[in-house]
Amino acid sequence: MLSNNHMFIRALAIAFMLIANGAITYGQPDLTLGNTASYTKIDWDPTVARTMQDPGKPIIDQFLREGGYVNLDAELVDIKRSKASTIYCYQFFYAGIPIHHMEAKIKVSDKSSDARIGLSMLPIEISDEKHGIQSRDLESYFPEAVYSTPIYYLEGSKLLPGYRIKVKRGNPYFTVEIFDLELNKLSSEDLVSFYHSVQLTDTTVKGYVFMPDPVTSANTVYGGNFVDNSDQTNPFLDNERVLVDIEVTDNAGTLELENQWVKIVDMGPPALPPATSTGDFLYDRSQSGFEDVNTLYHISNFQAFLIGIGYSNITGGPVNFDPHGDLNDNSYFLPGSGIFLGIGGVDDAEDADVIIHEYGHAVSNSIAGTNSGMERQSLDEGFGDYLAASYSNAITSYRATDIFTWDGHNVFWSGRSASVQRTYDQISPFDIYYNGEIWSSALFAFETYNGRAIATDILLESMYSYLPGMNMKQAADLMIDADTTLYGGASYPYLCYIMKDYSFVDTCTVPRPSGLPVLVIPESPKEKVESTFELLNSDQFGNESITVNFTAVDEGAFEVNLYNTLGQQLNTLRSSNQSVLISPENLERGIYFIEVIHKGEKKVTFKVIRQ
Predict the structure, then answer these.
(1) Cα-based angle 313, 252, 270 (whole degrees, multiple of 5)
(2) 158-168/125-126 β-pairing
(3) What CATH number matches the domain at 532-610, 2.60.40.3080, 2.60.40.10, 1.10.10.10, 3.40.190.150?
(4) Which DSSP category does 468 fall into?
(5) What is the pTM of this model?
(6) What would the pLDDT profile of 320-331 be if each residue is shown by its tens digit?
């Protein structure tokens, strides 16, 4: 057992000195999970590798052996193919039991012997605790469990025993929950399983969509004739519809909204069966079928772009979308290929930004997975925001960096931006959406100077190497590495200096391009003296609600967000009054963060403890 951090770092360094050419890049400790990730280049003999079924195993074994991990092992669990590389994916085990979110990837370029290994940081301390409850006995504690298995998990730098339990929460929903030995729940991940029918006949018909949303195509902002008005339409909104070709499925004469990329389904409330037809799909926004068609078209159109740059089957099959899948103004992706779009406020499925952003989570889950850790989750949000901005910009440049232009930037919520003037040094320890704006802004700036195809290509290639617990600076390094793999480093000057402007890269080895202006970061705006914020928490967030009081001279609704320590947004409340009540109902004991936003600008954050 390694007893302290110095012993671990020394063992890690010895192992990498034996297998690596390049210097070690250590990840910064993740603020919530205790994970870090490290990357380095390694020697790789393609001639020898071609003769081996698992060519990365000797490298992983040597690392474990030289690091002193006598009871740890790694197993090859997947081999992925990117556009220009092969990626060998490994799961770590301790004494034959898997370690939750402890992984390694070896990415090998097709064009040369260049290879890079990425490792989730392994434990410094290994607990002497043993599994006190047999896996088979857990069913008596969790009768709704589908299966249970012992695992190890990290708490800080210490490896502890626990259990992984898959629980059925209603068809097709499942959660995978991690418990300690006392059966205290540590984390929960949503899963959803879907099964696609046999291949049916494709046909092309007409349908109406927004392109990409009505306020953008009209070169206007939310207000006047361009308001939600409880899903009612009007001549101005109708005029922003565009008639397009859509590829659908002919099922014995009934046309269904399904093709090789997307399937419209009914999964969450409200219960609205997907639209079908015997001809064209001609709806306005007051009809639920409009959102169905809008969703299918924009995913299909985005997929056509991906195919054009060499990614023909990036999600491994059609992704299920429910355009009316949540009663709130909230959309989300559940691993297992299911996307639920909210109908609160402006229906999310009317805004291509929301559709493409959520599809970005499905793409990331397919090629990278590993969406664990604050900065890793921030990268995922920034990735989705960038795809949305890039997609809209390909249609029209008007307000392209205003993310969720129709769904947000209105009375319901403030939306987000892919052109913020903030840097990596200013990231939040808990807000993945705030951090994601910094990443999407850097990505969009890179696209501005190198084009959509090259920027997206380099980004996707880099994401195959993502690991749990990685940080955002490592993601920038992986993009530079992907540029070398794909284009021989042709994009390096712009890519490096843009990432440097946002503090994702420290130094660049070539002169700054003459046409690239330096990003100017303004001083952090001071809080207006007229604005006040007060948190009333008399019951220690026990049985009574917390009251957030606020006053401001500026008019406009306040947005109050509740986060847990994993950076997961649990609730969003909006008010134009002077206070908001946050109920502790359904919240477990622990630490939470309350964020107050006014007019799209973060004003204050409170930390509270649920007793």
Answers:
(1) 70
(2) parallel
(3) 2.60.40.3080
(4) T
(5) 0.79
(6) 999 999 888 888
